[in-house]
## 1
Amino acid sequence: MTGSLIKILESGGIEASAPCRIDLGGTLDISTFYYPLRHLSPCTFNIAINLRTSVKLLPLKKNVVRVSSRGFESAEYPVDKAPFNHPLGLMFAVAAYFRAENVHIIIDSSSPPRSALGGSSSAAVALVGAFSNAFAKRGGDAFAKDETAILAHALEESVAGVPCGLQDQLAAAYGGINAWHWQREFKEPLFNKETILPGSEHEALKNNILLAYCGMPHESRNINSRWVKGFLSGNNRDFWAEIIECTDKFVRFFKNRKFKEAAEEMNRETAVRVRMTSDVLDGMGKRLVNAAMENGCGARFTGAGGGGCVWAIGEADEINRLGSIWSDILIYEKDACLLDFGIDSKGLEVIG
Protein backbone atom coordinates (compact mmCIF):
# COMPACT_ATOMS: atom_id res chain seq x y z
CA MET A 1 0.00 0.00 0.00
CA THR A 2 1.72 3.18 -1.09
CA GLY A 3 1.37 6.86 -1.88
CA SER A 4 -2.05 8.45 -1.77
CA LEU A 5 -3.74 5.48 -0.10
CA ILE A 6 -1.46 5.73 2.92
CA LYS A 7 -2.25 9.44 3.11
CA ILE A 8 -5.96 8.64 2.98
CA LEU A 9 -5.63 6.32 5.95
CA GLU A 10 -3.43 8.78 7.85
CA SER A 11 -6.12 11.42 7.41
CA GLY A 12 -8.64 9.40 9.39
CA GLY A 13 -8.84 5.83 8.22
CA ILE A 14 -11.71 3.95 6.60
CA GLU A 15 -14.50 2.18 8.47
CA ALA A 16 -17.13 -0.24 7.17
CA SER A 17 -19.72 -2.53 8.70
CA ALA A 18 -22.13 -5.22 7.53
CA PRO A 19 -24.90 -7.24 9.21
CA CYS A 20 -25.05 -10.89 10.16
CA ARG A 21 -28.08 -13.03 9.24
CA ILE A 22 -30.51 -15.75 10.22
CA ASP A 23 -31.53 -18.13 7.47
CA LEU A 24 -33.41 -21.09 6.05
CA GLY A 25 -32.72 -23.27 3.00
CA GLY A 26 -28.96 -22.80 3.14
CA THR A 27 -26.59 -25.09 1.18
CA LEU A 28 -28.86 -24.66 -1.84
CA ASP A 29 -26.83 -21.50 -2.55
CA ILE A 30 -23.83 -23.70 -3.41
CA SER A 31 -23.47 -24.35 -7.13
CA THR A 32 -22.83 -28.05 -6.40
CA PHE A 33 -26.52 -28.18 -5.47
CA TYR A 34 -28.36 -25.51 -7.45
CA TYR A 35 -27.11 -26.51 -10.90
CA PRO A 36 -28.21 -30.19 -10.75
CA LEU A 37 -31.42 -29.14 -8.97
CA ARG A 38 -32.21 -26.16 -11.17
CA HIS A 39 -35.37 -27.83 -12.53
CA LEU A 40 -36.79 -27.47 -8.99
CA SER A 41 -36.03 -23.71 -8.83
CA PRO A 42 -34.02 -23.69 -5.58
CA CYS A 43 -33.99 -20.60 -3.40
CA THR A 44 -32.71 -19.68 0.06
CA PHE A 45 -34.09 -17.23 2.60
CA ASN A 46 -32.37 -14.93 5.06
CA ILE A 47 -32.96 -11.96 7.32
CA ALA A 48 -30.15 -9.49 7.93
CA ILE A 49 -29.93 -8.64 11.63
CA ASN A 50 -28.37 -5.64 13.32
CA LEU A 51 -25.65 -7.66 14.99
CA ARG A 52 -23.09 -6.06 12.72
CA THR A 53 -19.43 -6.76 12.06
CA SER A 54 -17.26 -3.65 11.76
CA VAL A 55 -13.80 -3.20 10.27
CA LYS A 56 -11.44 -0.28 10.46
CA LEU A 57 -8.36 0.37 8.29
CA LEU A 58 -5.57 2.30 9.98
CA PRO A 59 -2.07 3.10 8.67
CA LEU A 60 0.77 1.01 10.03
CA LYS A 61 4.42 1.99 9.67
CA LYS A 62 5.58 -1.57 9.05
CA ASN A 63 5.66 -3.55 5.82
CA VAL A 64 3.06 -5.99 7.10
CA VAL A 65 -0.66 -6.54 7.41
CA ARG A 66 -1.81 -6.67 11.02
CA VAL A 67 -5.25 -8.07 11.90
CA SER A 68 -6.84 -7.64 15.31
CA SER A 69 -10.21 -9.16 16.16
CA ARG A 70 -12.09 -9.71 19.42
CA GLY A 71 -11.74 -13.32 20.50
CA PHE A 72 -8.53 -13.91 18.52
CA GLU A 73 -4.87 -13.18 19.11
CA SER A 74 -3.65 -10.37 16.86
CA ALA A 75 -1.38 -11.43 14.01
CA GLU A 76 0.79 -9.70 11.44
CA TYR A 77 2.58 -10.92 8.31
CA PRO A 78 4.05 -9.54 5.11
CA VAL A 79 1.25 -9.64 2.55
CA ASP A 80 3.06 -12.26 0.42
CA LYS A 81 3.65 -14.58 3.38
CA ALA A 82 0.36 -14.33 5.23
CA PRO A 83 -1.13 -17.79 5.95
CA PHE A 84 -4.67 -18.21 4.67
CA ASN A 85 -5.27 -21.24 6.90
CA HIS A 86 -4.82 -19.03 9.95
CA PRO A 87 -7.90 -18.33 12.17
CA LEU A 88 -7.81 -14.84 10.60
CA GLY A 89 -6.77 -16.18 7.21
CA LEU A 90 -9.81 -14.84 5.34
CA MET A 91 -8.90 -11.30 6.34
CA PHE A 92 -5.34 -11.84 5.16
CA ALA A 93 -6.69 -13.23 1.87
CA VAL A 94 -8.76 -10.07 1.31
CA ALA A 95 -5.69 -7.93 2.04
CA ALA A 96 -3.63 -10.02 -0.38
CA TYR A 97 -6.21 -9.53 -3.13
CA PHE A 98 -5.90 -5.76 -2.77
CA ARG A 99 -2.10 -5.93 -2.33
CA ALA A 100 -2.54 -4.07 0.94
CA GLU A 101 0.45 -3.59 3.22
CA ASN A 102 1.27 -1.08 5.93
CA VAL A 103 -2.25 -1.46 7.25
CA HIS A 104 -3.81 -2.43 10.56
CA ILE A 105 -7.20 -4.13 10.13
CA ILE A 106 -9.32 -3.95 13.27
CA ILE A 107 -12.42 -6.16 13.38
CA ASP A 108 -15.20 -5.92 15.94
CA SER A 109 -18.34 -8.04 15.94
CA SER A 110 -21.48 -7.60 18.02
CA SER A 111 -22.39 -11.28 17.54
CA PRO A 112 -20.87 -14.12 19.62
CA PRO A 113 -17.75 -15.66 18.03
CA ARG A 114 -18.49 -18.65 15.78
CA SER A 115 -22.22 -18.32 16.40
CA ALA A 116 -23.29 -19.52 12.91
CA LEU A 117 -24.70 -16.09 12.09
CA GLY A 118 -22.40 -15.54 9.12
CA GLY A 119 -19.97 -13.31 11.01
CA SER A 120 -16.91 -14.25 8.95
CA SER A 121 -18.80 -13.52 5.74
CA SER A 122 -20.04 -10.15 7.00
CA ALA A 123 -16.46 -9.32 8.06
CA ALA A 124 -15.20 -10.18 4.57
CA VAL A 125 -17.92 -8.07 2.93
CA ALA A 126 -17.12 -5.14 5.21
CA LEU A 127 -13.38 -5.49 4.54
CA VAL A 128 -13.83 -5.72 0.76
CA GLY A 129 -16.07 -2.65 0.96
CA ALA A 130 -13.50 -0.75 3.01
CA PHE A 131 -10.60 -1.53 0.65
CA SER A 132 -12.74 -0.89 -2.41
CA ASN A 133 -13.72 2.55 -1.18
CA ALA A 134 -10.18 3.34 -0.08
CA PHE A 135 -8.74 2.54 -3.50
CA ALA A 136 -11.59 4.44 -5.19
CA LYS A 137 -10.27 7.62 -3.56
CA ARG A 138 -7.25 7.35 -5.88
CA GLY A 139 -9.63 7.40 -8.84
CA GLY A 140 -12.32 5.07 -10.20
CA ASP A 141 -15.45 3.65 -8.66
CA ALA A 142 -15.96 1.58 -5.55
CA PHE A 143 -17.48 -1.87 -6.01
CA ALA A 144 -21.25 -2.19 -6.26
CA LYS A 145 -23.01 -4.33 -3.64
CA ASP A 146 -23.27 -7.38 -5.88
CA GLU A 147 -19.60 -7.11 -6.85
CA THR A 148 -18.58 -6.79 -3.21
CA ALA A 149 -20.60 -9.86 -2.20
CA ILE A 150 -19.35 -11.99 -5.09
CA LEU A 151 -15.69 -11.11 -4.46
CA ALA A 152 -16.00 -11.70 -0.70
CA HIS A 153 -17.58 -15.09 -1.40
CA ALA A 154 -14.92 -16.06 -3.94
CA LEU A 155 -12.15 -15.25 -1.48
CA GLU A 156 -13.87 -17.09 1.39
CA GLU A 157 -14.44 -20.19 -0.72
CA SER A 158 -10.84 -20.11 -1.95
CA VAL A 159 -9.45 -20.32 1.58
CA ALA A 160 -12.14 -22.52 3.17
CA GLY A 161 -11.16 -25.66 1.30
CA VAL A 162 -14.82 -26.65 0.82
CA PRO A 163 -17.63 -25.22 -1.34
CA CYS A 164 -19.35 -22.26 0.32
CA GLY A 165 -22.71 -20.65 -0.34
CA LEU A 166 -23.21 -17.03 -1.36
CA GLN A 167 -26.28 -16.07 0.65
CA ASP A 168 -24.36 -14.89 3.73
CA GLN A 169 -22.40 -12.34 1.71
CA LEU A 170 -25.57 -11.17 -0.05
CA ALA A 171 -27.35 -10.58 3.26
CA ALA A 172 -24.31 -8.65 4.50
CA ALA A 173 -24.16 -6.49 1.37
CA TYR A 174 -27.87 -5.80 0.83
CA GLY A 175 -29.49 -6.12 4.26
CA GLY A 176 -33.24 -6.66 4.59
CA ILE A 177 -35.43 -9.75 4.31
CA ASN A 178 -34.91 -11.57 1.04
CA ALA A 179 -35.28 -14.79 -0.86
CA TRP A 180 -32.37 -15.52 -3.18
CA HIS A 181 -33.25 -17.46 -6.33
CA TRP A 182 -30.28 -19.27 -7.80
CA GLN A 183 -29.13 -19.38 -11.39
CA ARG A 184 -31.16 -21.81 -13.52
CA GLU A 185 -29.54 -21.13 -16.90
CA PHE A 186 -25.88 -20.40 -17.46
CA LYS A 187 -26.60 -17.11 -19.24
CA GLU A 188 -28.89 -15.85 -16.48
CA PRO A 189 -27.67 -13.71 -13.56
CA LEU A 190 -26.01 -15.69 -10.78
CA PHE A 191 -28.90 -14.86 -8.44
CA ASN A 192 -32.17 -12.98 -8.33
CA LYS A 193 -33.10 -11.04 -5.22
CA GLU A 194 -36.73 -11.12 -4.06
CA THR A 195 -37.60 -8.67 -1.30
CA ILE A 196 -39.97 -10.51 1.04
CA LEU A 197 -41.05 -7.67 3.34
CA PRO A 198 -40.23 -3.96 2.93
CA GLY A 199 -38.34 -1.99 5.52
CA SER A 200 -41.53 -0.35 6.79
CA GLU A 201 -42.64 -3.74 8.18
CA HIS A 202 -39.37 -4.76 9.80
CA GLU A 203 -40.00 -3.28 13.25
CA ALA A 204 -43.32 -5.10 13.74
CA LEU A 205 -41.74 -8.39 12.70
CA LYS A 206 -39.60 -8.46 15.86
CA ASN A 207 -42.66 -9.80 17.69
CA ASN A 208 -42.65 -12.91 15.49
CA ILE A 209 -38.98 -13.92 15.77
CA LEU A 210 -36.74 -15.20 18.54
CA LEU A 211 -32.99 -15.83 18.47
CA ALA A 212 -30.89 -17.75 20.99
CA TYR A 213 -27.17 -18.48 21.28
CA CYS A 214 -26.74 -22.06 22.50
CA GLY A 215 -23.49 -21.35 24.33
CA MET A 216 -21.36 -23.63 22.16
CA PRO A 217 -19.48 -22.33 19.08
CA HIS A 218 -19.99 -24.12 15.80
CA GLU A 219 -17.70 -25.46 13.10
CA SER A 220 -19.63 -25.52 9.84
CA ARG A 221 -17.01 -27.11 7.59
CA ASN A 222 -17.57 -30.62 8.88
CA ILE A 223 -21.34 -30.67 8.42
CA ASN A 224 -21.24 -28.74 5.16
CA SER A 225 -18.58 -31.02 3.74
CA ARG A 226 -20.62 -34.09 4.70
CA TRP A 227 -23.66 -32.68 2.93
CA VAL A 228 -21.59 -31.94 -0.15
CA LYS A 229 -19.94 -35.38 -0.18
CA GLY A 230 -23.29 -37.11 0.25
CA PHE A 231 -24.84 -35.13 -2.58
CA LEU A 232 -21.92 -35.77 -4.91
CA SER A 233 -22.13 -39.51 -4.21
CA GLY A 234 -25.80 -39.54 -5.20
CA ASN A 235 -27.19 -39.86 -1.67
CA ASN A 236 -30.04 -37.85 -0.12
CA ARG A 237 -31.15 -36.23 -3.38
CA ASP A 238 -34.80 -36.70 -2.35
CA PHE A 239 -34.07 -34.91 0.92
CA TRP A 240 -32.72 -31.88 -0.93
CA ALA A 241 -35.78 -31.84 -3.18
CA GLU A 242 -37.91 -31.73 -0.02
CA ILE A 243 -35.80 -28.90 1.40
CA ILE A 244 -36.40 -26.91 -1.78
CA GLU A 245 -40.15 -27.45 -1.41
CA CYS A 246 -40.09 -26.48 2.28
CA THR A 247 -38.11 -23.32 1.59
CA ASP A 248 -40.38 -22.23 -1.24
CA LYS A 249 -43.51 -22.71 0.88
CA PHE A 250 -41.90 -20.99 3.86
CA VAL A 251 -41.07 -17.95 1.73
CA ARG A 252 -44.63 -17.71 0.38
CA PHE A 253 -46.18 -18.03 3.86
CA PHE A 254 -43.72 -15.56 5.37
CA LYS A 255 -44.38 -13.02 2.63
CA ASN A 256 -48.10 -13.20 3.44
CA ARG A 257 -47.41 -13.01 7.19
CA LYS A 258 -48.87 -16.47 7.76
CA PHE A 259 -46.40 -17.28 10.51
CA LYS A 260 -48.11 -20.39 11.82
CA GLU A 261 -47.90 -22.04 8.39
CA ALA A 262 -44.33 -20.74 7.92
CA ALA A 263 -43.42 -22.31 11.27
CA GLU A 264 -44.71 -25.69 10.09
CA GLU A 265 -42.48 -25.54 7.00
CA MET A 266 -39.51 -24.47 9.11
CA ASN A 267 -39.99 -27.48 11.39
CA ARG A 268 -40.30 -29.74 8.38
CA GLU A 269 -37.06 -28.39 6.89
CA THR A 270 -35.26 -28.82 10.22
CA ALA A 271 -36.51 -32.41 10.51
CA VAL A 272 -35.16 -33.25 7.05
CA ARG A 273 -31.73 -31.88 7.99
CA VAL A 274 -31.73 -33.89 11.22
CA ARG A 275 -32.57 -37.07 9.28
CA MET A 276 -29.55 -36.44 7.07
CA THR A 277 -27.18 -35.28 9.82
CA SER A 278 -28.29 -35.94 13.39
CA ASP A 279 -25.58 -33.75 14.93
CA VAL A 280 -26.76 -30.65 13.07
CA LEU A 281 -28.46 -29.88 16.39
CA ASP A 282 -26.44 -30.13 19.60
CA GLY A 283 -28.10 -30.98 22.92
CA MET A 284 -29.15 -27.40 23.65
CA GLY A 285 -30.37 -26.94 20.08
CA LYS A 286 -32.58 -30.03 20.34
CA ARG A 287 -34.15 -28.77 23.56
CA LEU A 288 -34.87 -25.37 22.03
CA VAL A 289 -36.34 -26.83 18.83
CA ASN A 290 -38.53 -29.28 20.75
CA ALA A 291 -39.82 -26.50 22.99
CA ALA A 292 -40.69 -24.39 19.95
CA MET A 293 -42.61 -27.22 18.31
CA GLU A 294 -44.50 -27.99 21.52
CA ASN A 295 -45.61 -24.33 21.70
CA GLY A 296 -46.83 -23.82 18.15
CA CYS A 297 -43.68 -22.22 16.76
CA GLY A 298 -41.04 -23.21 14.23
CA ALA A 299 -37.34 -23.39 15.03
CA ARG A 300 -34.16 -23.98 13.09
CA PHE A 301 -30.40 -23.79 13.61
CA THR A 302 -28.63 -20.95 11.83
CA GLY A 303 -26.07 -21.61 9.11
CA ALA A 304 -24.87 -25.20 8.98
CA GLY A 305 -25.67 -25.86 12.63
CA GLY A 306 -23.61 -28.05 14.90
CA GLY A 307 -23.66 -25.37 17.60
CA GLY A 308 -24.09 -21.63 17.45
CA CYS A 309 -27.60 -20.21 17.30
CA VAL A 310 -31.22 -21.33 16.92
CA TRP A 311 -33.99 -19.02 15.73
CA ALA A 312 -37.74 -19.36 15.96
CA ILE A 313 -40.77 -17.96 14.17
CA GLY A 314 -44.44 -17.91 15.09
CA GLU A 315 -47.45 -15.79 15.91
CA ALA A 316 -46.70 -13.02 18.42
CA ASP A 317 -48.43 -14.64 21.41
CA GLU A 318 -46.67 -17.97 20.89
CA ILE A 319 -43.28 -16.29 20.40
CA ASN A 320 -43.76 -14.25 23.56
CA ARG A 321 -44.51 -17.41 25.54
CA LEU A 322 -41.62 -19.27 23.92
CA GLY A 323 -39.20 -16.52 24.94
CA SER A 324 -39.83 -17.26 28.61
CA ILE A 325 -39.52 -21.02 28.04
CA TRP A 326 -36.26 -20.65 26.11
CA SER A 327 -34.85 -18.40 28.85
CA ASP A 328 -35.48 -21.16 31.40
CA ILE A 329 -33.75 -23.71 29.16
CA LEU A 330 -30.74 -21.54 28.34
CA ILE A 331 -29.71 -20.96 31.96
CA TYR A 332 -28.32 -24.51 32.09
CA GLU A 333 -25.54 -23.76 29.57
CA LYS A 334 -22.75 -21.30 30.30
CA ASP A 335 -22.80 -18.31 27.91
CA ALA A 336 -26.14 -19.42 26.39
CA CYS A 337 -28.68 -16.60 26.14
CA LEU A 338 -31.41 -14.96 24.14
CA LEU A 339 -29.92 -12.40 21.76
CA ASP A 340 -31.39 -8.92 21.52
CA PHE A 341 -31.52 -7.96 17.87
CA GLY A 342 -33.42 -6.06 15.22
CA ILE A 343 -33.74 -6.40 11.46
CA ASP A 344 -31.09 -4.57 9.46
CA SER A 345 -32.36 -2.87 6.33
CA LYS A 346 -29.13 -1.06 5.42
CA GLY A 347 -26.59 -3.75 4.53
CA LEU A 348 -23.00 -2.71 3.90
CA GLU A 349 -22.07 0.78 5.07
CA VAL A 350 -18.70 2.50 4.53
CA ILE A 351 -17.50 5.65 6.29
CA GLY A 352 -14.39 7.59 5.34
Note: The two ends are 17 Å apart (CA to CA).
## 2
Amino acid sequence: MSALLEITSARKVFGGVRAVDDCSLSVEEGSITALIGPNGSGKTTLFNLITGYLGADGGEFRFRGRDVTGSDPGRLYRHGLTRTFQQARVFPHMTVTENLVAAGGYRWRDLLVPRVSRRDRARAEVLLEEFRMTHVAELQAADLSYGQRKLLEFAAVLMSEPRLVLLDEPTAGVNPVMIETMERHIRERNGVGVTFLVVEHDMQFVMRLCNPVVVLNNGKEIFAGSPADVQQNPMVLDAYLGT
Protein backbone atom coordinates (compact mmCIF):
# COMPACT_ATOMS: atom_id res chain seq x y z
CA MET A 1 0.00 0.00 0.00
CA SER A 2 1.02 3.63 -0.52
CA ALA A 3 0.14 6.75 1.44
CA LEU A 4 -3.17 8.29 0.40
CA LEU A 5 -2.90 11.09 2.98
CA GLU A 6 0.39 12.50 4.26
CA ILE A 7 0.65 15.09 7.03
CA THR A 8 4.02 16.67 7.77
CA SER A 9 4.74 18.87 10.80
CA ALA A 10 1.16 20.15 11.17
CA ARG A 11 0.70 22.87 13.77
CA LYS A 12 -2.30 24.67 15.25
CA VAL A 13 -2.10 27.08 18.17
CA PHE A 14 -5.05 28.50 20.11
CA GLY A 15 -3.79 31.32 22.30
CA GLY A 16 -0.80 29.80 24.02
CA VAL A 17 -1.98 26.21 23.60
CA ARG A 18 -0.46 24.01 20.88
CA ALA A 19 -3.48 21.87 20.03
CA VAL A 20 -1.52 20.22 17.20
CA ASP A 21 2.24 20.32 17.72
CA ASP A 22 4.44 19.42 14.72
CA CYS A 23 2.31 16.34 14.04
CA SER A 24 3.27 14.02 11.20
CA LEU A 25 1.37 10.92 10.15
CA SER A 26 0.19 9.07 7.07
CA VAL A 27 -2.88 7.06 6.09
CA GLU A 28 -2.20 4.17 3.75
CA GLU A 29 -4.55 3.63 0.83
CA GLY A 30 -6.99 0.79 1.50
CA SER A 31 -6.56 0.92 5.29
CA ILE A 32 -8.96 1.49 8.15
CA THR A 33 -6.71 3.65 10.32
CA ALA A 34 -7.70 4.64 13.85
CA LEU A 35 -6.71 7.90 15.51
CA ILE A 36 -6.98 7.62 19.28
CA GLY A 37 -5.81 9.57 22.29
CA PRO A 38 -7.01 11.15 25.52
CA ASN A 39 -9.41 14.08 25.54
CA GLY A 40 -7.55 17.20 24.48
CA SER A 41 -4.88 15.28 22.57
CA GLY A 42 -5.68 17.11 19.32
CA LYS A 43 -7.72 14.52 17.40
CA THR A 44 -10.67 16.72 16.43
CA THR A 45 -8.42 19.70 15.71
CA LEU A 46 -6.32 17.53 13.40
CA PHE A 47 -9.51 16.30 11.68
CA ASN A 48 -10.54 19.92 11.14
CA LEU A 49 -7.12 20.79 9.69
CA ILE A 50 -7.17 17.80 7.32
CA THR A 51 -10.65 18.62 6.03
CA GLY A 52 -10.19 22.38 5.70
CA TYR A 53 -12.52 23.48 8.49
CA LEU A 54 -9.54 25.09 10.22
CA GLY A 55 -6.46 26.65 8.72
CA ALA A 56 -3.13 25.25 9.93
CA ASP A 57 -0.44 27.48 11.42
CA GLY A 58 2.20 25.35 9.76
CA GLY A 59 2.90 22.06 8.05
CA GLU A 60 2.00 20.37 4.80
CA PHE A 61 -0.99 18.23 3.82
CA ARG A 62 -0.85 15.96 0.77
CA PHE A 63 -3.77 13.94 -0.57
CA ARG A 64 -3.41 11.52 -3.49
CA GLY A 65 0.10 12.85 -4.01
CA ARG A 66 -0.88 16.51 -4.39
CA ASP A 67 -0.37 19.39 -2.00
CA VAL A 68 -3.79 20.35 -0.55
CA THR A 69 -2.50 22.59 2.24
CA GLY A 70 -5.02 25.38 2.79
CA SER A 71 -7.75 23.78 0.64
CA ASP A 72 -11.35 24.43 1.64
CA PRO A 73 -13.78 21.58 2.47
CA GLY A 74 -15.61 21.88 -0.86
CA ARG A 75 -12.47 21.44 -2.92
CA LEU A 76 -11.36 18.46 -0.83
CA TYR A 77 -14.83 16.92 -1.18
CA ARG A 78 -14.60 17.18 -4.96
CA HIS A 79 -11.18 15.50 -4.87
CA GLY A 80 -12.53 12.58 -2.85
CA LEU A 81 -11.88 13.47 0.81
CA THR A 82 -14.90 13.83 3.06
CA ARG A 83 -15.95 13.38 6.68
CA THR A 84 -18.67 12.86 9.25
CA PHE A 85 -19.00 14.70 12.55
CA GLN A 86 -19.39 13.55 16.15
CA GLN A 87 -22.86 15.10 16.18
CA ALA A 88 -24.47 13.98 12.94
CA ARG A 89 -24.95 16.87 10.50
CA VAL A 90 -28.04 16.37 8.37
CA PHE A 91 -30.72 18.69 7.00
CA PRO A 92 -33.51 18.09 9.55
CA HIS A 93 -36.38 19.48 7.47
CA MET A 94 -35.49 17.59 4.30
CA THR A 95 -36.40 13.99 3.64
CA VAL A 96 -33.87 11.21 3.86
CA THR A 97 -33.76 10.96 0.06
CA GLU A 98 -33.34 14.74 -0.30
CA ASN A 99 -30.44 14.64 2.16
CA LEU A 100 -28.67 12.09 0.00
CA VAL A 101 -29.30 13.94 -3.26
CA ALA A 102 -28.12 17.20 -1.66
CA ALA A 103 -24.89 15.43 -0.71
CA GLY A 104 -24.29 14.95 -4.42
CA GLY A 105 -23.51 18.65 -4.64
CA TYR A 106 -26.94 20.23 -5.23
CA ARG A 107 -28.48 23.12 -3.39
CA TRP A 108 -31.77 22.35 -1.68
CA ARG A 109 -33.76 24.44 -4.18
CA ASP A 110 -32.45 22.26 -7.02
CA LEU A 111 -33.71 18.99 -5.59
CA LEU A 112 -37.08 18.77 -7.30
CA VAL A 113 -36.21 20.16 -10.71
CA PRO A 114 -34.82 18.39 -13.78
CA ARG A 115 -31.25 19.51 -13.11
CA VAL A 116 -31.00 16.69 -10.54
CA SER A 117 -29.68 13.81 -12.55
CA ARG A 118 -31.28 10.41 -12.72
CA ARG A 119 -27.89 9.02 -11.81
CA ASP A 120 -27.87 10.80 -8.44
CA ARG A 121 -31.43 9.76 -7.66
CA ALA A 122 -30.61 6.17 -8.63
CA ARG A 123 -27.48 6.26 -6.48
CA ALA A 124 -29.53 7.57 -3.53
CA GLU A 125 -31.94 4.66 -3.94
CA VAL A 126 -29.05 2.17 -3.98
CA LEU A 127 -27.60 3.64 -0.78
CA LEU A 128 -31.01 3.63 0.90
CA GLU A 129 -31.35 -0.04 0.15
CA GLU A 130 -27.79 -0.81 1.20
CA PHE A 131 -28.27 0.99 4.52
CA ARG A 132 -31.73 -0.55 4.95
CA MET A 133 -33.37 2.87 5.11
CA THR A 134 -35.78 2.56 2.19
CA HIS A 135 -38.68 2.44 4.62
CA VAL A 136 -37.78 5.90 5.96
CA ALA A 137 -36.84 7.44 2.59
CA GLU A 138 -39.66 10.00 2.66
CA LEU A 139 -39.41 10.86 6.36
CA GLN A 140 -37.82 14.12 7.37
CA ALA A 141 -34.39 13.63 8.92
CA ALA A 142 -35.69 15.27 12.11
CA ASP A 143 -38.00 12.28 12.58
CA LEU A 144 -35.17 9.73 12.60
CA SER A 145 -33.59 8.27 15.71
CA TYR A 146 -30.12 9.48 16.64
CA GLY A 147 -28.57 6.27 15.32
CA GLN A 148 -30.47 6.57 12.05
CA ARG A 149 -29.22 10.13 11.61
CA LYS A 150 -25.65 8.87 12.08
CA LEU A 151 -26.27 6.24 9.40
CA LEU A 152 -27.82 8.84 7.10
CA GLU A 153 -24.79 11.10 7.45
CA PHE A 154 -22.51 8.16 6.66
CA ALA A 155 -24.58 7.25 3.60
CA ALA A 156 -24.57 10.90 2.50
CA VAL A 157 -20.78 11.16 2.45
CA LEU A 158 -20.69 8.12 0.18
CA MET A 159 -22.78 9.92 -2.46
CA SER A 160 -19.60 11.57 -3.73
CA GLU A 161 -17.86 8.18 -4.14
CA PRO A 162 -14.95 9.32 -1.93
CA ARG A 163 -11.47 7.85 -1.75
CA LEU A 164 -10.96 8.76 1.93
CA VAL A 165 -13.64 9.13 4.63
CA LEU A 166 -12.86 10.59 8.03
CA LEU A 167 -15.27 9.29 10.68
CA ASP A 168 -15.52 11.31 13.91
CA GLU A 169 -16.81 9.12 16.75
CA PRO A 170 -19.11 6.98 14.57
CA THR A 171 -20.37 4.90 17.53
CA ALA A 172 -20.87 7.75 20.02
CA GLY A 173 -24.33 7.66 21.57
CA VAL A 174 -25.66 4.71 19.56
CA ASN A 175 -26.80 1.30 20.75
CA PRO A 176 -24.88 -1.98 20.29
CA VAL A 177 -27.00 -3.07 17.32
CA MET A 178 -26.29 0.21 15.53
CA ILE A 179 -22.58 -0.15 16.34
CA GLU A 180 -22.58 -3.56 14.62
CA THR A 181 -24.40 -2.01 11.66
CA MET A 182 -21.88 0.82 11.39
CA GLU A 183 -18.97 -1.60 11.60
CA ARG A 184 -20.44 -3.78 8.86
CA HIS A 185 -20.86 -0.82 6.51
CA ILE A 186 -17.29 0.36 7.14
CA ARG A 187 -15.93 -3.11 6.37
CA GLU A 188 -18.05 -3.43 3.23
CA ARG A 189 -16.99 -0.03 1.91
CA ASN A 190 -13.37 -0.70 2.73
CA GLY A 191 -13.68 -3.99 0.84
CA VAL A 192 -14.45 -2.09 -2.36
CA GLY A 193 -11.58 0.35 -1.96
CA VAL A 194 -12.65 3.17 0.38
CA THR A 195 -9.99 4.21 2.90
CA PHE A 196 -11.02 5.29 6.41
CA LEU A 197 -9.48 7.39 9.17
CA VAL A 198 -11.50 6.90 12.35
CA VAL A 199 -11.51 8.87 15.61
CA GLU A 200 -13.17 6.67 18.21
CA HIS A 201 -13.20 6.18 21.99
CA ASP A 202 -14.71 2.67 21.92
CA MET A 203 -11.52 0.64 22.16
CA GLN A 204 -13.21 -2.69 21.48
CA PHE A 205 -14.55 -1.26 18.23
CA VAL A 206 -11.13 0.13 17.32
CA MET A 207 -9.18 -3.02 18.16
CA ARG A 208 -11.34 -5.36 16.09
CA LEU A 209 -11.79 -3.03 13.11
CA CYS A 210 -8.75 -0.80 12.65
CA ASN A 211 -5.17 -1.43 11.59
CA PRO A 212 -2.99 0.52 12.07
CA VAL A 213 -3.85 2.50 15.19
CA VAL A 214 -2.24 5.94 15.54
CA VAL A 215 -2.01 7.40 19.04
CA LEU A 216 -1.93 11.15 19.69
CA ASN A 217 -0.93 12.87 22.91
CA ASN A 218 -0.33 16.57 23.45
CA GLY A 219 -0.95 17.27 19.79
CA LYS A 220 1.54 14.86 18.25
CA GLU A 221 1.82 11.20 17.31
CA ILE A 222 3.47 9.14 20.05
CA PHE A 223 2.98 5.69 18.51
CA ALA A 224 1.53 3.90 15.50
CA GLY A 225 1.17 0.18 15.04
CA SER A 226 -1.10 -2.82 15.06
CA PRO A 227 -3.87 -3.11 17.67
CA ALA A 228 -1.84 -5.73 19.54
CA ASP A 229 1.25 -3.51 19.61
CA VAL A 230 -0.76 -0.49 20.75
CA GLN A 231 -2.23 -2.42 23.67
CA GLN A 232 1.26 -3.42 24.84
CA ASN A 233 3.14 -0.16 24.31
CA PRO A 234 4.12 1.50 27.63
CA MET A 235 3.76 5.07 26.30
CA VAL A 236 0.23 4.36 25.08
CA LEU A 237 -0.75 2.64 28.30
CA ASP A 238 0.54 5.58 30.30
CA ALA A 239 -1.06 8.25 28.07
CA TYR A 240 -4.41 6.72 27.31
CA LEU A 241 -5.39 3.10 27.74
CA GLY A 242 -4.32 2.67 31.34
CA THR A 243 -3.34 -0.54 33.07
Note: Residues 106-115 have pLDDT under 50 and may be disordered.
